[in-house]
Amino acid sequence: xxxxxxxxxxxxxxxxxxxxxxxxxxxxxxxxxxxxxxxxxxxxxxxxxxxxxxxxxxxxxxxxxxxxxxxxxxxxxxxxxxxxxxxxxxxxxxxxxxxxxxxxxxxxxxxxxxxxxxxxxxxxxxxxxxxxxxxxxxxxxxxxxxxxxxxxxxxxxxxxxxxxxxxxxxxxxxxxxxxxxxxxxxxxxxxxxxxxxxxxxxxxxxxxxxxxxxxxxxxxxxxxxxxxxxxxxxxxxxxxxxxxxxxxxxxxxxxxxxxxxxxxxxxxxxxxxxxxxxxxxxxxxxxxxxxxxxxxxxxxxxxxxxxxxxxxxxxxxxxxxxxxxxxxxxxxxxxxxxxxxxxxxxxxxxxxxxxxxxxxxxxxxxxxxxxxxxxxxxxxxxxxxxxxxxxxxxxxxxxxxxxxxxxxxxxxxxxxxxxxxxxxxxxxxxxxxxxxxxxxxxxxxxxxxxxxxxxxxxxxxxxxxxxxxxxxxxxxxxxxxxxxxxxxxxxxxxxxxxxxxxxxx
Length: 505
Ligand code: XMP
Hints:
alpha/beta, nine-stranded mixed sheet, Rossmann fold, globular, 3 domains, 14 helices
């Protein structure tokens, strides 16, 4: 067992996932009063997570210093390493913030960095760094801006890293966890396998003779979750889809033609395009937009529910990333409200059935493949619940929606034709809320700026922009300014996550 102490990192749960994937039992704990649990449960290792605060900030989460003298191996990550240094007499300061990729140079290849190359890419997300290590520590690695990017105590099993090994963008992150677990904590690795039959029988057992109503978004998460439910309970499952007009056009095609074949059930379609446009009228703030969409969705859902009084469960395709982005944990910052989490009616009598809740996108896809779902369904790109509405900055109107749909279709078409659609995690356009000057047919034209966002990611928790060929970017740009009325300019978003979120709103 490894204890993970959560100081509010956005990616604390990813640490847990990395350990779970390696077959290591682990538990996330709040920092307050953790010493008691550690003393009682005697974990074989402790990981201190990152967090949004500075160790010097008032109210910054901290930990009883005694944990460093228990002899249990400790790995501090980002804030966890800064806190280790701070509590043991080192110095932490804000010198230069770093977000996104950095180049790690390893100087000591023993235990923690065993098998690492001398140089590798790591993912950073920090303001402060350790400027003076506490007495008794040796540096193990550095980056361009952080001298003590990794360190270890000379005699005690205490380690610290400034970067995020849990991020899938840290190239050798999994190896670092393997080393910590097997070489330092001395726990044998036993990688875990997904068991579909077990998942199906768990659903069967939970639902019994009851009925389940299923909310479909058209995306991979809900269709994979729904397939498991359909295989477990067949006709006791009642799937439906709300057509908000904010999704890509191919979603409706799939719902009508492909999903019934996969599920062996018809999906009820609730048509509500105009209603969504009217609740979005005059709404500019991104969070209010999400709330307006979520609110209407609930209203439509409640109407649907009245028709199925026998339903006792509600199936949703919520993944762990949705959950963590929306709710987070005690010390984490709220980023944005993904509308399928936490937006359900307070007095809802249904019990939630969320088979994907503890899985990430890559695992959901793996389950989809194991279930034998068609490639175009499993491999399709994630699409946010609020859809085009959060990709049209500012107020959403019918006219803007038409422009955004057209521009997005051009991008997707070119990505598919060039074979890039399959290679990237997500690609989409953003109808920015700014205008720029152009010359069209010898006349002045003042029109919209469209941005392109094409990212690589595994689990949505970190992302990098994709280095698309210039010739492809040029084709997309030319087609958008020529084919989408009112567009004057196309720009390419080259920002990593962190710091930028994937969606602009
Ligand atoms: P962000 O913008 O939070 O996006 O970095 C991470 C991933 O989540 C998707 N996304 C959403 N999905 N409801 C969803 O179901 C939402 O409200 C929502 N907002 C963002 C986004 O497309 C990316 O894959």
